[in-house]
Amino acid sequence: MRIILLCLLLSVSVTSAFAAETEIRPIGKRTRGNIVSFFTDNVFGKRPEGADHPPLLKFEKTAEDKLMPDGKMVRKEVRIVYGGPCGTNSFPVVAFIPAGAKGPVPAFLLICNRDYAKNCDPERNQKSPFFPVEEIVARGFAAVSFHTWSVAPDYNTGNTKGVFEAFEKPGPYRKPKLWGTISAWAWGASRALDWLETVPEIDAKRVAVIGHSRGGKTALWAAVTDKRFAMTCVNGSGCSGAKLNHMDLEKSEHIAHIVRTFQYWFCLDYTLWVNREKEMPYDQHELLSCVAPRLLAVGSGSKDVWAGPAGEQKATELARAAWSDPERVSYHCHKGGHGMGADDWNVYLSHAEKYLKQD
Ligand code: GTR
What we know:
By secondary structure, the chain is an alpha/beta fold.
């Protein structure tokens, strides 16, 4: 009896705490818990029991810390080794930290879904506007990255490779509600944050998780599922990311398109919503609202029709109602198409300078 009463009390207080953050539309019972459960069960899938606290988790240095030739930053390289009931595996993470920083610095953690050597070159011979490490460091942040492929490959393996191998026995069929690859990559972001918590030069309470396109959807889901991320930057995320489903943006990607090519990014049950977007009880602005009261920055491209910039903007505007200070949510639209570059980074860095550094 006492236990039942305690559970009731706890659920009332948790619900009201979340309700204050997420009341956007007075339709049904829109608490953070309801929204997260919906997106877990219907979109991104459930992680297997224990995956968020792997029984084996260690951080192995793969090289000595190195002062880079520009003398302005130090590179740290580790391999995150993890194990679950079905096996062990690992993935590399690289961090650049401002040299000689006085005290721990805030950081940007990029979920890199593009060619890693070209966009995140650990030697810094190749520079890319997709991940402007030197500028991030010059503005007082650490620049950390990992490659999506090293956590789970970005093709349809039936979700049997990478992190999936450690937590699930391979079977002939995927279970309908189990996690897809976006959830696996978001899991990778959380494990990278586990490592950052052990790095004295980094302030792990001020880490922004950032991604573009499929990486943008992942950055959003990472921040929703892991409240330790103090900020998230959701760039060009489109369908299943920041784009509102309830708007008629005919030329934009819909669930029918995305599951045709990328079913493995989601739980199998996501296919049940094909051509039924408007029947979904929750829309993407509610997913964005689950980031409150932390920092959120959403970016679009004016010509990125497939991602539906108008839908990304509208969702962000609606989501703002979940913040007591709506200025903590930033929205911008760069001129041009599908990409993340200098203009976007400038917005994200400025937002972080204004809030993440000061909070
Ligand atoms: C597209 C996909 C989008 C987006 C993009 C990307 O083909 O339809 O949802 O995620 O890939 O990641 O570049």
